[in-house]
Design brief:
single chain, mainly beta, Pectate Lyase C-like, 17-stranded mixed beta sheet, eleven-stranded parallel beta sheet, 4 helices, binds 2-acetamido-2-deoxy-beta-D-glucopyranose, signal
């Protein structure tokens, strides 16, 4: 009897699953007029597909088949009625003239979406014209970030590829619960301000797997970031993983509970860095773990720099108000491209506290590298090369 009951409930359950699956609405951008030729402006078609999906009471999928789609600056706005899967097998290309995006600050922008899963997508922002403009010192537009999420919650970004962004590739701003999985972000080593991922004012962001080869930070972590986990990251060239710059403003939300685990840095300017302005601020950094990291020929593998003040302007007391505490560096090994592999240059008015070094082995030209400490307190244990200056 029980077995029959179980069978019946199984059948009902399967029918239910089938019903839920088959009732899922699907919107193919081609049927909204998008052209996969890389030349025809498909922005309006994408927006119409989004509007339909967003208004759908059932979960829905927006599908972008293989091909190249020309898209101008675009906003996908929520809230939407149900969850949306945006599956992009194609490549999204920006207009050839960098000025078309340059004045908006964004290219692809999601605002106030909840329960969005973005699968795939290759973004080609064609940033070279914009970088050249900046290099020439001409009057250039502000530039566009390639893909931005503002006030978005419960988002999955999986398998995104982005090349040659004008500015940052992927920005997560004022979001909660975002998973960024296996992204590939690429821009030339010398392209200015092409951060890989920038996170700020956000909680519960996970970056898991990813290859970040950029001109600026692989991942930059701005004010108001909490509970950020990064694992299995390949970084470099570029400026490494950076918390900061913080403390530009007197009132600023701090950064807490950040973990980077299992990462390889190759040929980057920095490995793991915490950076703050030499200005008054009530900002802070606390509870940070950097662990299981390999450095290959990295200029500053471990760095805290509280003396940031470009052109020595706007830093009257030349000292940072940002309080840095409880930062652990554990199992970090490899090679430094400069003699000094570990640099802690903390604020004279707010010394770093609770800094922990454990099992560090960093060499320079096959010899132990050196370390330097200013205004810092903490402990060290295990194998330590360079010798700890704590
Ligand atoms: C720290 O962040 C992780 C996610 O990275 C989260 O699971 C954990 O609960 C957070 N810890 C605290 C004390 O908030």
């Amino acid at each position: 009897m029980a077995a029959i009951k179980l069978m019946i409930s199984c059948v009902i359950y399967l029918l239910f699953i089938f019903f839920v699956q088959s009732s899922k609405a699907a919107y193919n951008v081609i049927s909204f007029g998008a052209k996969p030729d890389g030349k025809t402006d498909s922005t309006q078609s994408f927006l119409e597909a989004w509007a339909s999906a967003c208004a759908s009471p059932q979960a829905s999928t927006i599908y972008v088949p293989k091909g190249r789609y020309l898209i101008k600056a675009v906003v996908f706005r929520g809230p939407c009625k149900n969850r949306i899967t945006f599956q992009i097998d194609g490549t999204i290309v920006a207009p050839t003239d960098y000025r078309a995006l340059g004045n908006s600050g964004y290219w692809i922008l999601f605002i106030k979406v909840d329960r969005l899963t973005l699968i795939g997508a290759t973004l080609d922002a064609k940033g070279a014209g914009f970088w050249a403009c900046r290099k020439s010192g001409k009057n250039c537009p502000v530039g566009a970030r390639s893909i931005t999420f503002n006030w978005a919650n419960n988002v999955v970004i999986s398998g995104l590829t982005s090349i040659n962004s004008q500015l940052a590739h992927l920005v997560i701003n004022s979001c909660d619960n975002v998973l960024v999985r296996n992204v590939k972000l690429t821009a030339p080593d010398k392209s200015p301000n092409t951060d890989g991922i920038h996170v700020q004012s956000s909680t519960g962001v996970t970056v898991s797997g990813g290859t970040l080869r950029t001109g600026d930070d692989c991942i930059s972590i701005g004010p108001g970031t909490r509970n950020l986990l990064m694992n299995n990251i390949i970084c470099g060239p570029g400026h490494g993983v950076s918390i900061g710059s913080l403390g530009k403003d007197i009132n600023e939300d701090g950064v807490q509970n950040v973990t980077l685990t299992n990462a390889v840095f190759t040929g980057s300017d920095n490995g793991v860095r915490i950076k703050s302005w030499a200005r008054d601020s009530n900002s802070f950094v606390r509870n940070v773990v950097f662990q299981n990291i390999i450095m290959n020929n990295v200029e500053n593998p471990i760095l805290i720099d509280q003396n940031y003040c470009p052109n020595n302007q706007g830093c009257p007391r030349q000292t940072s108000g940002v309080k840095i505490s409880q930062v652990t560096y554990r199992n970090i090994k490899g090679t430094s491209a400069t003699p000094e592999a570990v640099t802690f240059d903390c604020s004279p008015s707010n010394p770093c506290r609770g800094i922990r070094l454990q099992d560090i082995k960093l060499t320079f030209m096959n010899k132990a590298a050196t370390s330097s400490c200013k205004n810092i307190g903490g402990t060290s244990s295990g194998l330590l090369m360079p010798e700890s200056c704590l």
